[in-house]
Design goal:
single chain, alpha+beta, Jelly Rolls, Arc Repressor Mutant, subunit A, 2 domains, 6-stranded antiparallel beta sheet, 4-stranded antiparallel beta sheet
Length: 289
């Protein structure tokens, strides 16, 4: 039997200021148990467009307890998700091939024509919110069912995104948050701190304080991934290096973003098929580290 395909796609420079990354998952031809067909994701400040080429995906309304969990209705084949302040999970009753593309909140407003703040914690059919040009572009990609769907999506979106080229480095949220803060500072020269905070919230849909949470958890994940060869991480050192007040503070915030404690997270990262997303990102971090 095949093993599931999980692939991270880095956008081309032409779309580097629009797309954070693409995540592709293909379990066709794979033999997976019911719990292995769960997919766990962290909270995220990004908006996401998901294209489901084959199979179905259902949002999970509560985390699996033993062998029990509660899948909701099937998601539309083209789904728009706003920034998520809580971790999420989906489940497929059988084989599935899907692509999810992270969109920077500032780019979201240009593509969709509405501020991202209106979509925080929401999942909607793309057809209900996207302008015709963007919807039709995504529909063409969905209909093609190509072997290289991310490349095809880039080709369709590029005419809709007429902005200067921007480098596409490893997709770190921290780099983006620091960029947002810098741009807000230049835009707020001579104005109040409140104006600066309002700019950040208008652009991202969240406060700068909330965005800093993502930076700290990302830094903790990077330090955790750096522990190689099955070594035992020193959680107190990771907490200090990532900017947490202490280990307990780190534990609370990691649970807030991922839904699990740091110790449990490490176990699931190593052994749980449903944590494939985190292993994919860990592999990319090791590559760039």
């Amino acid at each position: 039997m095949k093993t599931p395909l999980s692939r991270l796609h880095i956008p081309s420079p032409a779309l580097g200021a629009c797309l954070l990354a693409g995540i592709e998952r293909d379990t066709r031809g794979c033999s997976l148990g019911e719990l292995d067909r769960l997919n766990y994701y962290p909270a995220t400040p990004m908006a996401v467009i998901s294209l489901i080429f084959e199979g179905t995906l259902h949002l999970v309304e509560s985390e699996a307890q033993g062998n029990r969990f509660a899948p909701g209705p099937a998601l539309p084949r083209l789904t728009l998700s706003g920034p998520q302040r809580h971790p999420a999970a989906s489940w497929s009753p059988g084989p599935v091939h899907a692509l999810s593309v992270g969109i920077y909140p500032e780019a979201f407003k240009r593509l969709i024509g509405q501020p991202v703040a209106s979509f925080v914690d929401r999942h909607l059919p793309l057809e209900t919110v996207a302008p015709p040009a963007l919807l039709q572009a995504c529909q063409r990609v969905l209909a093609a069912g190509a072997q290289t769907p991310f490349a095809l999506l880039e080709k369709e979106i590029q005419p809709l995104w007429r902005e200067p080229f921007h480098p596409s480095p490893a997709p770190y949220i921290g780099d983006w948050v620091r960029s947002v803060a810098t741009r807000a500072t230049h835009s707020s020269s001579g104005r109040s701190l409140r104006h600066w905070q309002r700019l950040v919230r208008d652009w991202t849909g969240q406060s700068y304080r909330d965005l800093q949470l993502f930076i700290r958890v990302e830094e903790a994940f990077i330090h955790r991934v750096a522990v190689r060869n099955g070594g035992t991480p020193n959680l107190a050192d990771i907490a200090a290096d990532a900017g947490f007040a202490d280990q307990s503070h780190m534990g609370r915030e990691i649970r807030r973003i991922t839904g699990v404690s740091p110790a449990r997270f490490g176990e699931r990262l190593a052994n749980d098929e449903s944590f494939w997303y985190y292993r994919l990102i860990a592999g990319e971090i090791r590559q760039y580290g």
